[in-house]
Write a structure and sequence with these properties.
Blueprint (H helix, E strand, L loop, with lengths): L4 E5 L5 E6 L6 E3 L3 E2 L4 E2 L4 E2 L4 E2 L4 E2 L4 E2 L4 E2 L4 E2 L4 E2 L4 E2 L4 E2 L4 E2 L4 E2 L4 E2 L4 E2 L4 E2 L11
Parallel strand pairs: 3-6, 4-7, 5-8, 6-9, 7-10, 8-11, 9-12, 10-13, 11-14, 12-15, 13-16, 14-17, 15-18, 16-19
Antiparallel strand pairs: 1-2, 2-3
Length: about 140
């Protein structure tokens, strides 16, 4: 039986330990909180301090940076990047290869399409069709 964790050195020369999540085998750093009902697919990384709520689906190759907060039933498509301290409201959908900047806010129920970039500290609200609303 293989080990259930991986040690990876970060950019500062520190070694971080990641465990494989039971739903999907994605890598969860020590200090991150991921609800047991969330799915974190293989190849995804959840960094220390991040919080992932119930029913979230994190696709392959997604990177959720430190202190990001992902609300319930959010869907994050493959290869998206969620910046440090970003917050994504419940039932939001984040598209393939979308970049959400550090400290950005995505309101609940928003639809962010593929290949979009949300800037650092930006707040975005859309309707379920992806049309931008006043935020």
């Amino acid at each position: 039986m293989g080990k259930n964790y991986v040690d990876i050195e970060n950019d500062h020369g520190e070694t971080l330990r990641y465990r494989k999540h039971s739903n999907g085998r994605g890598l969860i750093a020590h200090g991150a909180k991921v609800h047991p009902t969330a799915v974190v697919e293989a190849g995804a990384y959840i960094e220390p301090g991040a919080k992932i709520a119930a029913g979230v689906h994190v696709g392959r190759g997604v990177w959720v940076e430190s202190d990001a907060v992902i609300g319930p039933e959010v869907e994050i498509a493959p290869h998206a990047h969620i910046g440090s301290g970003a917050a994504i409201g419940g039932r939001a959908k984040i598209g393939v290869r979308t970049q959400v900047g550090a400290g950005a806010r995505i309101t609940g129920g928003s639809l962010i399409g593929d290949d979009q970039t949300i800037g650092d500290g930006e707040t975005v609200a859309t309707d379920p069709r992806g049309l931008h609303l006043a935020a």
